[in-house]
Structures are given as C-alpha cells and as structure tokens.
Design a protein that fits this description.
179 residues; alpha+beta; 4 helices
Length: 179
C-alpha cells in the first residue's frame, strides 16, 4: 500500500520571515512625529499552513515573547504576512527579529516531528492491516471440507470436481442460470 505524505517542497521548509513590508510602515518614521511603537508587517518565506497559524497565534508564542523580554509585542497573521504590533524597526533589528525567527523555526520543527510520527503510525497500521488480511486469507485457504472417513485421494478429488462441473453444466442447460 502506498501513501502520500508531505515530505518535500515548500510545505516542509522551515517557516521564516523574509522582509519587512516597507509600504505598511507609518509615513512619519524618522521624523519628529514618528510613533514610538507601531505595527510592522513582515512577509513569510512561504504561506503558513493551518497548524502553523494556530501555533503562531497561541498562548505559547505570547509566553515565548514575554520570556524573551517582549511582553507587550503581539502577533497576528494576514495572508502571507506576520503583523507584529507594539514594536518598532529598531527593536526588531536589535533582537526581536531573531526571537521571532527562533519561534517560527521551533514551530516548524515541532510540527514536522508530529507529522513524521503520524506518518510512521499510519504506515505501521497499514502494514499491520496487510499482515492481518494475509493471515485471514491464509487461514481461509487452509480450511478443507472432507468427509469423516478421511482425506480423499487426488484422483477422488479430480473425479468430484468433474462431477461438480457436470452438475453445473446440467443446471445451466436446464435454464437455471437465468432464474
């Protein structure tokens, strides 16, 4: 039995962040009116899947950021962008960017491990089912219907088979097959 699992391509690549979406930054940056904290949008290296999104938005990610020294930073996802709220470019450059990259790599590795384990369990179950089906078929083939007088000889078995075939032919000739 062959199964398809996601073992190659972009779906198994570690999820990361490629660049900041400059067009989403506040227009007043590097002026006297620039906000101290704002939302920065960063583009994912690939589209995150459902499980990755769930993990990114989980309380574990909030705890991870808080333990790393960023308790006010919040993340959300919009399509292929990670929206990082309550931060700024300097904070991202000076450490938060690495913390986010570490969290995304941790999520990717964890989900990859879970999926690999599930694939192994599936393969083992399929193999066990094949073994069971083969054992049932072998057991069924081992059943023989013999008279209580003992086993019939090969010649007797061939004679019985010919008699059975003749009976079937007779039944067919009488129209029994169309009933």
């Amino acid at each position: 039995m062959e199964t398809q699992t996601r073992t190659s391509g972009a779906a198994t690549a570690t999820l990361g962040l490629g660049s900041v979406l400059v067009g989403s930054l506040p227009a007043a940056l590097m002026t006297d009116h620039a906000p101290d904290r704002y939302t920065v949008e960063a583009v994912f290296t690939r589209r995150p899947d459902k499980d990755e999104i769930t993990e990114i938005l989980s309380s574990q990610t909030r705890d991870f950021l808080a333990k790393a020294g960023y308790p006010t930073v919040e993340v959300s996802i919009s399509d292929r962008r990670l929206e990082i709220a309550n931060t700024n470019l300097e904070e991202l450059r000076d450490g938060l960017g690495g913390v986010l990259a570490d969290r995304l790599a941790e999520i990717s590795a964890s989900l990859r491990t879970e999926r690999d384990a599930a694939a192994v369990r599936f393969q083992q179950a399929a193999s066990g089912e094949q073994d069971r089906a083969a054992a049932v078929a072998a057991l069924a083939e081992s059943v023989a219907f013999h008279t209580s007088e003992g086993l019939a000889s090969d010649a007797d078995r061939r004679s019985t088979a010919l008699d059975d075939r003749a009976g079937l032919d007779n039944w067919t000739d009488e129209g029994g097959h169309g009933r």
